[in-house]
């Protein structure tokens, strides 16, 4: 129903932000990362939104980026993970870290999130690992460099590695582990290839 809301921040707190748009104050549930990025009273912001409608509740959830929203939408497809738990997961780990944990199968990192046990963490990995799909590069790019060049470097490295026969899942995992030390796509691919030789 709502793709995003543009308005002024009225107030914010732990797990929420109130945005006034066209004379209406929207109470938006949000991750710690969204509140930290958008929570400045009086500032005009753009919040990507998702409206959760249940028999006894209508709640609005907000995200600082389209990637965070896409990760949220992926999480709520997992059986046993509702919108509140998904926001809790996104509060405990940024999109980049979360994607890396899922792709690499790191259930220990996920099970550290409050309210998520080992079984739920493993279910998230099983159900989402192969379904990160086309969003994988975008998820790994979030926070990587803050620049379009950094995003392009990751996409180019993933494309090159998969063309060399590396599986998409393994390519995502290895690029995630190596990207912070690489200055260009050649360095990134060489680092990944060295990891593959080990």
Any overview of this molecule?
The chain has 198 residues and is of the alpha+beta class. It has three domains: 4-63, Beta Barrel (OB fold (Dihydrolipoamide Acetyltransferase, E2P)), CATH 2.40.50.140; 66-130, DNA polymerase, domain 1 (Orthogonal Bundle); 144-197. Helix content is 50%, strand content 21%. The protein has ten helices and five strands. A five-stranded mixed β-barrel has the order 1-2-3-5-4. A hairpin with a 2-residue loop joins β2 and β3. α2 (66-75) packs across α3, α4 crosses α9 (168-178) and α8 packs across α9 (168-178). The longest helix is centred in the C-terminal third of the chain and has 16 residues, at 148-163. It is globular. Mean pLDDT is 83; it is low at 144-148.
Q: Give a count of the beta strands, DSSP E runs of length 2 or more.
A: 5
What is the H/E order?
Answer: EEEHEEHHHHHHHHH
CATH topology of the largest domain: DNA polymerase, domain 1
Q: Enumerate how many helices there are, as a single number.
A: 10
Summarize the structure.
The chain is 50% helix and 21% strand.
Strand and helix layout:
Layout: E1 4-13, E2 16-21, E3 24-30, H1 32-38, E4 44-54, E5 57-63, H2 66-75, H3 83-92, H4 95-104, H5 107-111, H6 118-128, H7 136-141, H8 148-163, H9 168-178, H10 185-197
Parallel strand pairs: 3-5
Antiparallel strand pairs: 1-2, 1-4, 2-3, 4-5
Helix pairs in contact: 2-3, 4-9, 8-9, 8-10, 9-10
């Amino acid at each position: 129903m709502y793709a995003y809301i543009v308005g002024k921040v009225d107030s914010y707190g732990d797990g929420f932000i109130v945005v006034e748009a066209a004379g209406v104050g929207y109470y938006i549930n949000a991750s710690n990362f969204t509140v930290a990025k958008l929570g400045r009273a009086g500032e005009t912001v753009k919040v990507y939104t998702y409206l959760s409608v249940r028999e006894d509740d209508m709640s609005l959830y907000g995200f600082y980026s389209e990637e965070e929203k896409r990760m949220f939408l992926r999480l709520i497809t997992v059986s046993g993970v509702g919108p509140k738990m998904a926001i809790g997961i996104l509060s405990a780990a940024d999109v980049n870290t979360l994607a890396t944990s899922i792709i690499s199968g790191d259930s220990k990192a996920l099970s550290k999130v409050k309210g998520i046990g080992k079984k739920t963490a493993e279910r998230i990995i099983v159900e989402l690992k192969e379904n990160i799909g086309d969003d994988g590069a975008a998820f790994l790019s979030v926070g990587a460099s803050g620049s379009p060049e950094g995003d392009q470097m990751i996409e180019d490295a993933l494309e090159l590695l998969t063309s060399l026969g590396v599986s998409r899942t393994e390519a995502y995992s290895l690029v995630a582990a190596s990207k912070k030390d690489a200055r260009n796509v050649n360095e990134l691919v060489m680092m990944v290839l060295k990891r593959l030789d080990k």
